[in-house]
Structure formats: C-alpha cells, structure tokens
Batch of 2 targets.
Target 1
Amino acid sequence: MWDFSTEPEFQAKLDWIKEFVREEVEPLDLVFNKFCHSYDVTDAKAVAAIKPLQEMVKKQGLWAPHMGPHLGGQGVSMVQLAQINEILGRTDWGPRVFGSQAPDSGNAEIIHTYGTEAQKARYLQPLLDGEIVSCFSMTEPQGGSDPGVFATTAVRAKGAGGDEWVINGEKWYSSNACWASFLICMAITNPEAPLGERFSMFLVPIDTPGVEIIRNVGLFHEPLYSGEGNESYVRYTNVRVPADAMLGPEGHGFKTAQDRLAGGRLHHAMRSVGACQKLLDMMCERAVSRNTTRGPLSATQSIQLQIADSAIEVQQFRLMVMHAAWLMDQGDHAAAYTAIGMCKVLTAKTYREMSVRAMHMHGSLGITNELPLGNMFVTSMVMGLADGPSETHKFNIAKRILREVKPAEGLFPSTHIPSRQPAAREKLAKYL
Ligand SMILES: Cc1cc2nc3c(=O)[nH]c(=O)nc-3n(C[C@H](O)[C@H](O)[C@H](O)COP(=O)(O)OP(=O)(O)OC[C@H]3O[C@@H](n4cnc5c(N)ncnc54)[C@H](O)[C@@H]3O)c2cc1C
C-alpha cells in the first residue's frame, strides 16, 4: 500500500513543533550563533535559555524523538521522525532543544544497545537528560575514514584496580571533545584479526590522565586563532581505562561503528531536507522581492528555471529520505542500508548545489555573514565528508547492486534486439 497521508493527531504535533521552532528556537539561532554553539554546555547563559524550552518539549512528549519510550523518548516511527527532523533541521538549535542532536543521538543509541547497566547509568542517562554532551572518536589524522589504516591501539594490562586497557594513538575531528564529558574511542585490540573483528570501542571519561586535546580545529569560516573550533584533534598517551570501559564485546567495534553511523546518516539527511526547503523558501522570497528595471527577479526565465530545479530536487530528496525511513520501519535493514547510502550521497549533492544557488541569487548579500547561507554552505560541505566521503558510499551502493546481477549469457547483452527478436516473432506468430 502506498500512502502519503499524515494522521491528524500527528499532524497536530507537527503543527505545534513548527510554531514552537519559529517562535522559541529561531531566536536562539540569532543570539547564540557561533557555529556549533549549541553543543557548548559550558555557556551558562545559553544553557539557562534552553532549559525552559527543553521542559516545554518534554511536556509535549516530544523529547528525544529518536529514542524509545523506555528511554524517555517518544518512540515515533522513522517516517514520523523524518517529518520532525525536517522541521528541526531549519535551525541550529532545534536538535539540542529537542534532545536529538548528533553525535549524541547516535552515541546514546549504541550505549543503549551495547552498554552494560553500569555504563548506561553512568553515561546514557545524563546524555538522555541533556545534561552532558559526548564525542565519537574514530577518525585518525593519517587514516581518514579508512579503518584499514587506523593505528590507535588498546592493549591489556594489569593495573592497581585489576584488568585494564591502555590506549595509545591520535584521533582527528573528534567533534565536541572540547565540551564532552566522555569519548567513545575506537581502537585496535586484535591486530591479527580480519578488519571486521580488529577493533573495540571504549568509553573514556574526558578527564582520564593521558587524554590530551592537541587543538580544537575550526572550519574554514571560523577565525583561525580564536580557539573557537570544536573539531578536536585528540591524543591518547597511555590512557588507562578499566576492563569494564569496553562498550560491547571485544572485536565488535567495527560493527558498532557501522550501526551507529547508518542511523546517524539518516538523521542528518532528515534534517538536511529541512535546510534545503529553507534554502528554497529563501530563494522564492528573494525572487519576488528583488526588482530590476525589467521587473522582479521572478519574472526572468533563468530564475524561474532555478526555482523549478530547486523545488524538484528538494522533493526528490525528501521522498528518498522518507522511503529509507519507511524501509527502516518495515524492518528491512538490508534494503534500508543501501537506501541510507543513497540518501547520504544525495544529502551532500542537493544541499551543496542549493546553497550555492541561493547564495548567488542573493547577490553580494548572499556571501555576507548577515544571512545564514555561509553556514549552510559549510554544512553542505560537511555532509559530503562526515560519516565517510560520498565516493565510499557510492562504491558500497554499486557493490551491493552488482552483487545481485548475473552476466549476460551470450556474446551480446540480454537486451540485444536482433538476439531477442526470433523468440518474440515466434510468440506473436499468429498475429504476423
Ligand atoms: C564537520 C565534521 C565532523 C566530523 N565529526 C567526526 C566525529 O565526531 N568523529 C569522527 O571520528 N570523525 C568525524 N569526522 C571525520 C569524518 O568521518 C572524515 O572527515 C571522513 O571520514 C573523511 O576522512 P578525511 O576527512 O580524512 O578525508 P580523506 O579520507 O582524506 O578523503 C578525502 C577525499 O579523498 C577521496 N577518497 C577518500 N577515500 C576514498 C576512497 N576509498 N575511494 C575514492 N576516493 C576516496 C574523497 O574524495 C574524499 O572526499 C568529521 C568530519 C567533519 C567534516
């Protein structure tokens, strides 16, 4: 059954979210507007401003919508989550106010799935309560997203308190380590094992001796020497953690990372649909507001073509994200995995092309810091890299598709017309 309708009760919730985001969340974007400011739990003024809003969201039963009810979340379907995230994705602060911001949402999911009761009590609960933020520490400076060249190790040792692991290595782009209470560090524990069984995950409190933030790297539109970047370059030097700091079984780190990143990619895509719709709305407003001697921009064909292309691209993107979400709801994880890979690639492409188009359409104003477009363009570039570059996702999509395909039986392709014609002629002989 194909059904694109929304239940009236859920539509009422979406309407509440839309109004709340416009009236209460957008002002946060305008005042607390450093890039990634929404992760800074040390900013007392911002924390004081969002607390009452988070309470209002909780009262509506909309807190942490990606988590099940037993974890204080709403337990909505993925298709419903897509609709919520589209609204939140129009703002920087929306995800934080609703307790669903990356990377904390994905980190919470893996602690929930693989964590022991003690780990959940120590890390998951404060994370779900929005009291702390966390960090996923996987990428390495020499290795990018290719685990085959990762070098961070964790080695068993005897410590004063019993069995321990000693972690050594460097991690690049450990987002928000500067504000995080703990890091989830992926390290080699079984160097001789095949790639899929070589790594384990560790929960490392940020104040563990040996954890050092070399520097907090900023993105290219952030001032180089301000120290305001939040992409932390982290060194682990003889970092000793107890045996029970391991998250999930030994050798399971690669699988855990895959689980974590797949869901996270879809959440990013859902929010990016909202961002792309916002870009389209901005372009439309600009087109009918800006006048030339020949009339408004909207009267020119080149602008009309851009508006039409943008509307088509956003709708294609939205439907693809909805379809991936629907596959997840059906429990078809294999098909969803490919669909999420496609969404990941399309997120970067659609978002980047639309943000460049929107900047150009806004002329000189479009490239100032007086519009959100610069930030949105940077975010679009981030979408093509974070959680793996688009190319690697394309390889995986192609591999999964090609796995199912058989080679042509004869010398020519199976669609070769002269080869197929005799059989078709025979089948239709009585009419010929
Ligand atoms: C804003 C942001 C936040 C991030 N947050 C985190 C985080 O919290 N935790 C974390 O662990 N990591 C994080 N990352 C890191 C992210 O996972 C990596 O940037 C990504 O995996 C790519 O690695 P790299 O940047 O070293 O690029 P590289 O691996 O050097 O890739 C550069 C380019 O080379 C090409 N390329 C790479 N590999 C292949 C290949 N196999 N085949 C063909 N072409 C290829 C692609 O064009 C790619 O764009 C973040 C990145 C960004 C930008």
Note: The mean pLDDT is 93.
Target 2
Amino acid sequence: MAVSFDIANAFNSIPHSAILEALRYHGVPTYLRSLAAACALAGTPPWELEASVLSAVYHWTAEQRARDLRPAPEERGAVRRHAHEDMVRDWEGDLSRAQFGRRTLDAIGPNLDRWLERPHGFLTYRLVQVLTGHGCFGNYLHKIGREESPSCHECGAAVDSAQHTLAVCPGWEEQRRVLVGAVGQDLSLPSIVNAMLDDERAWKAMASFCETRSAGMAMRRSPYPPRPSVAAALARCR
Ligand SMILES: [Zn+2]
C-alpha cells in the first residue's frame, strides 16, 4: 500500500488533525490511526502544543526586552513552567476528544501529568502491546488478517483481547494472581495505570505479567500464520 505520509516529518511539523485526515483519505485502517494514544504513551506532545510553550516564552521575553527589563533566569523558568502546565491541560482536552485509541487514552488521559512526570516506569514492547491492545491478541490479529478468527487460543472465548487477557482468560490465572497482589482487584486499564503510577512495584508486576503472557503466547501461536492478500486484510479492517 502506497501512503504518501512521512511519519517522522508529520510528527514534527503537521497538526494531528491534518495527519488524521490524510490517513483517512488514504484509507489507512482505523486501528492504525491511534496517533493520540501513541503520543500520550511516549509522552511526546503534538508539535502544535510544543510550539505553544516556545511561543509563550518568546513573547514574554520580547515583552521584557521592550520594557528594557532584564529578568532573572528563574523568572524565565517560571514562565516556561506555567506555559508547560497550560500545554498539558490543553493536551488532556485533546486526548479526551480523540476518536481512536480510546481504551489507552481513557487510562492515560486523566493521569497525563502524572504519566509525564512519573519517577519510575519503563515502557517495554510487551507492556505497550497490552496497553494499546495492538499485539498478540485474537481480535487484533484477526483485524490485520493474521488469523481467521478473533477467538482465544487459551480458553476458546469468542473474542480474545488485551482486556480478556488481563481480567478474564482462565489460561492466565496464576499470572493474574500475582498481578492482583500488586495492583488490586480492579483490573480495568484505568485502575491498573493508576496503580502503576502510584507504585513502582505495581508497574513492574504489570510489565512482568505482559512479558510472561507474551512468552507463553509465542510458544502457542505460530509466528508465521498464513497471510491473506493486503486488499483482503484492509477490507476486513474498514
Ligand atoms: Zn481466553
């Protein structure tokens, strides 16, 4: 599929609304349009919001110079901090209105400032898969044409998903018991993210659950399942 979309440039120069419109125009499947969730996970604000911080500091500095004032570096730092806080509030608002990646955004969005400022918590490949639902889950593999059915290989449930893995599937009971011991009984993603941000032990327990589960799945699922044509996969995702 030819898509005239340079993600490196786009992330650094084009408003997200324009990027999403380009993705829609080119027929990119919805599950690949979760730019807002990707940025939130990475802690990288959209360029236009980053620019608002630079703009606020620039205009404040220009105003000081126009008045022939020489403010201390601490004053400039305070202006930058306030502008950053305003930017995070605006970003939270944008995330609350984003259309795609809602499961991830509903967990991170309300905790965005804590997510950005967390003193602990390394994002692993497997952890991101469970946080986004984009990974070795029946419903996702079915969407992208990697599997014939979205069902769970562990328990036979009609739909396997990241949340099914976390909270329901009997195939992961033992690993879930350890997770519950660290994050509590509520295994909804917002509650887990809250616990992860509160306590490094909970973060590590969640990351460990994701790694263990993924290692188990890798042994059970064929790493190279048959792939349908690209056209058939895209048609299924729309
Ligand atoms: Zn299952």
Note: Residues 122-238 form one domain.
